[in-house]
Prior knowledge:
Elements: H1 13-20, H2 24-30, H3 41-54, H4 60-67, E1 72-77, H5 83-98, E2 102-107, H6 115-124, E3 129-133, H7 145-149, E4 153-157, E5 169-171, H8 175-189, E6 193-198, H9 202-205, H10 211-226, E7 230-234, H11 238-241, E8 247-248, E9 262-267, H12 270-274, H13 277-289, E10 297-300, H14 303-315, E11 325-327, H15 333-337, E12 344-346, H16 349-364, E13 381-384, H17 391-399, E14 411-414
Parallel strand pairs: 1-2, 1-3, 3-4, 4-5, 6-9, 6-10, 7-8, 7-9, 10-11, 13-14
Antiparallel strand pairs: 12-13
Helix pairs in contact: 1-2, 1-3, 5-16, 8-10, 13-14
Amino acid sequence: MASSAKTFALPTQRQIASALGISQATVAIALNPRSSKRLPEETILRIRSKADELGYRPHRSAQVMRQQRSHTVGVLFQSAAFQTHSDRIRLISQEFHRKGYHLIAADVDWFERNPETIQAYFLDAAVEGMVLSNIQVAFPPDWLQPFLQRSVKVVTMGMNSWSAQEPLEDYSADMEAAFYHLTRHHLAIGSRRLVLLLRPRYREYKGELSGGAKSRIRGFVRAMREAGGSVLTDEGALPLIGMDLPGVPEGQLVFKNSGSPEGIVSIAVREQLTGNLFEAGRQCSEELLRALLPPDSLICSNDHLALGAIGTCLNLGLSIPEQIRISGADETPFSANHVVPITSIRQPVLELAKAASLRLVEQLDGIEASGVPHPPRIPCEVIVRESTCNAGTAFRLADEGMFNPPPDQTRFTVSLRQR
Length: 419
């Protein structure tokens, strides 16, 4: 019994030629904008009109083989559910399209984090360049070698590091400076018991902190130490953090009321149990706030954790920012529109997209690096809202020069509903 399944077939140049009663060679010339041969304009328009009518599309693989160029760039990313990351991908896609490149993009989670499948996907597409953005999966150290052997150019964005055998140029926001100034902001308001609440998903991937998390910790620790304070963490987290911090046994990570500023680096492990960052922020902050000596500032590594923490504070009847100050990061849409507007950090996503795409196109055009092995981090903006201070406090901090532009170019913006 013959199969009734239909075979999908794309229109060909031969079919266009047959429909018009002309040679296939003439059709090929008309449809090739790079052809050195010339045809009458009327003939070209007639052929292209028929091609559109039949739904003709050039054979991509044949074009690549003929031109020895694919003009295709791949973007591999992770966690596009986060506003900052999705904005980054959208903007860099627009930049490459403006520069005349085709673009294919993929989230590592689409491939169940299978490095070999992801590798084949981009190699089969004959990409000339790659942008790796915010990847936390522990790929094999030699994962990039097939790309580098094919002279595929690679840059990273928002990663700070990559376990490749060759160094890569990374374009990242200066989150260390941003969290340094954000922590100083909390201290200037009067906070003395500060918690840096981190997102934990790195444990599932690498067994160590991501570069972004380490940047946040470095900024927090530097500000605390400059203020004469101390910073503690759970001793089980020390191998993950990889920094010179005192560690205490689980269950003993508490404030001592020493009189000097005290800081705690805490990991919101409950995200692994709930799969929900808002809920992780809610539960972890509740545990912290029910302690005998609770924090008076929660510096969250993203706005999702901060939103969960604010929900806990409202449920417990705590006044924000009078009794506790809370900040987030990444400037998500709800940070400015929540019932308690959230102090947050805006990353320079447009500048990152432009810098990374420009550098990759320069590499594709054979332009060597300027001699700077690591591009400078791009400054962020700290946006101060009601979750950390009221109008009176903001005016006092302004008079004290808190919001003056620092040498690292981190910007402060005060955005209060009532000033």
